[in-house]
Amino acid sequence: MKGVIFMKLKATLKTIGAVLYKNRSNIEFVAGMVCEAAGTAWIISKAKRATEISQECECMFEDAAAGEISKVVAVKYAVVEYGKCYGPGIALELLGMGLGTVSHLTDRSEVASAVALATSTASAFNAYRQRVIEDQGEEKDQEYLFGPQVISVTVDNDGNVIQKTEVVEDSNKKVNLPPHCVMFDEANPNWEKDPVANRDFLENHQRWLNQRLQAEGFLWENDIRRDLGAELVKAGWTSGIFSETPDGSTNYISLGLEAKNPAAQRFRDGVEPSIILQLNVEDNITDKIDMKLI
Q1: How far apart are CA 82 and CA 53, in angstroms?
Q2: Structural domain tally of the chain?
């Protein structure tokens, strides 16, 4: 019994440690802000004592000028008393600024590590894709990205050959979504019976995802899916969106809520409890990611 409790306690402590380590930049930043605020509050609270010290020092320097005490004693008294008065406050502010600097360095380190990992992952995946295409053909690559496909060839009345590629439907799913779409319904852990809560959730997360996109430079489709509580897909580790378009303008993530279509309007009005979210991401960004991260 004791062994089980010890193992659970050890696992809990490990989890807490992992969470703290993952969020260390935010913790350092908040701690720095708290220290600076505490230091400022300390200095303000000592205003009366500082006035008293000033008056005492003035008297002592007058006595020193008259030869009644040594100037060294007067200076030493001023340094010690002002140090007691303002020292802790200044120390707290310096500590706060130091923690802010550490937080900034931690952010830079995390971004550098993420960039290095994304670059190596993209390079390895591109090499793997090329081998798949060489060994099994481009159709196998498309099947990996989008699922099993059926290619049909027809000839119209004018004799034109029309080739059509269709994704094989999965009978286990209620809805066969087109690529880069998420069904936000009862199956989603973030879905609620309150239509207003659902609308607010999606609008708030769209805003948060756009802030994250601008901060990180790019997001995978699965990053967006995970944030929304949707199922991850294989193609979600190749498709994604950059914060900048090729012409240098700013890119934004859209969930399709702004689209002027009846379904989106019914969802916003609370008439429909669920909605198909259309993600405006590209089919494959791995070919461009190395260039973007240089």
Answers
A1: 7
A2: 2
Residue 286 and residue 195 in one domain: yes
Bridge-based pairing state of the strands 275-278 and 149-155: unpaired
- Length in residues, the chain: 294
Same domain, 125 and 205: no
Same domain, 23 and 114: yes
- Answer whether residue 64 is part of any domain: yes
| Domain interval for residue 27 | 2-134
Task: Give helix 47-65 / helix 71-136 axis angle, nearest 10°.
Answer: 140
- Give the global pTM: 0.44
For residue 165, is it within any domain?
no
E strand or H helix at 110: helix 71-136
Do 15 and 130 lie in a common domain? Answer: yes
End-to-end alpha carbon distance in the chain: 55
Helix/strand/coil for 240: strand
Question: Rounded CA gap, 218 and 75, in Å?
Answer: 59
CB 164 within 8 A of CB 151: yes
Q: What is the CA radius of gyration of the chain?
A: 31
Q: Is 235:226 a contact under the CB 8 Å cutoff?
A: no
Q: What are 235-251's pLDDT values in tens digits? A: 888 889 998 888 888 88
Whether the CB-CB separation of 173 and 230 falls below 8 Å is answered with no
Q: Answer yes or no: do 7 and 130 share one domain.
A: yes
Phi, psi at residue 30, to the nearest 5°? -65, -45
Distances in Å between the Cα of 102 and the Cα atoms of 40, 69, 107, 108, 250 are 20, 47, 9, 10, 30
Q: How far apart are CA 283 and CA 272, in angstroms?
A: 29
**pLDDT at residue 174 in the model:** 47
Residue 209 lies in a domain: yes
Pairwise CA distance, residues 230 & 182, whole Å? 7
Q: What is the pLDDT of residues 155-179, one digit of tens each?
A: 777 777 776 666 555 554 445 566 7
